[in-house]
Amino acid sequence: MFERLREDIQSVFHRxxxxxxxxxxxxxxxxxxxxxLHRLGHALWIRDFKWLARLVSNFGRWLTGIEIHPxxxxxxxxxxxxxxxxxxxxxxxxxxxxTLYQGVTLGGTSWNKGKRHPTLEDxxxxxxxxxxxxxxxxxxxxxxxxxxVVTKEVPAGATAVGIPGRIIVKAEDGEVEAKRKAMAAxxxxxxxxxxGDMPDPVARAIGLLLDHLQAVDGRLEEVCGxxxxxxxxxxxxxxxxxxxxDFAEVKQDVxxxxxxx
Length: 261
Prior knowledge:
Elements: H1 2-15, H2 22-28, H3 30-46, H4 50-64, E1 67-68, E2 73-74, E3 79-80, E4 87-88, E5 93-94, E6 99-100, E7 105-107, E8 119-120, E9 125-126, E10 131-133, E11 137-138, E12 143-144, E13 149-150, E14 159-161, E15 166-169, H5 174-186, H6 201-230, H7 248-255
Parallel strand pairs: 1-4, 2-5, 3-6, 4-7, 5-8, 6-9, 7-10, 8-11, 9-12, 10-13, 12-14
Antiparallel strand pairs: 14-15
Helix pairs in contact: 3-4, 5-6
C-alpha cells in the first residue's frame, strides 16, 4: 500500500513541474484523492459491495469533481492533472503511466451490457476536454489532442486530433517528416516551424507541397541524368535560391504579430 502511495506521489513530480513537495501533493492534488478513493471503491466493487462502492465513488465525485466508476480498472502511476469534469465509465480500462487532463470523458456509445468503454494502454496521454467514446483500444504511447472526439481505435504511438478524431502522426511517419524537412532545407525554405503534429490546414497543405516538390525534384534529377548520357556537353543550370527574407511577410502573417502568452 505504501509502495503504491510512493509511486503515485513520484508520478506527480515526474509530470507536474508545479509540484513542490510530497505533503503538498497529498493534501492539494484532487487527482490523487480521486485515485485513492477509486482504489477503495474498486476493492469494494470486486468484493460485491456494489452499493457501498458507488457511495465511495459518489463521495469522490463530490469532493474532487472527478467521477470514476468503481468498476473501472486503473493501472499504476495513473496521473490526473487538474481533473475537474473527468468522467471514467464502468468498463474502462487504464494501463500504467497514463495521464488525463481536465474535462476528459472515457465514455460509451451504447446502452448495451458488456464492454462499452475504451481501453487505454500504457503511457497514453489524453488532452483537456477530449472525449474517447466506445469499446476500442488506444495503443501504448498514443496521444489524444485537446477537445478531440475519438470513436475509433488509435494505433500505438499515434496522435489523434479533431472532431471526429483523425490520426495525424504515426510512429512510422518519422521518415516522411524527415524527408519534408530535408526538402525544405534544400530549397532554402523554413515552413514556419510547422510539423505533422499540428492540426492546421495550412501546415498540412505545406507538407503536401513539400512532398510534391520532392517527387518533382527526383524526377528532374533523373531527366538531367538521362540527358547527360545522351549529350556529354549538357550541363543543367542551377535552380534559383529561395531566401528567408523573401518569405518574411508570409511568416509574419502565419505566426501572427501577438507575442506568446
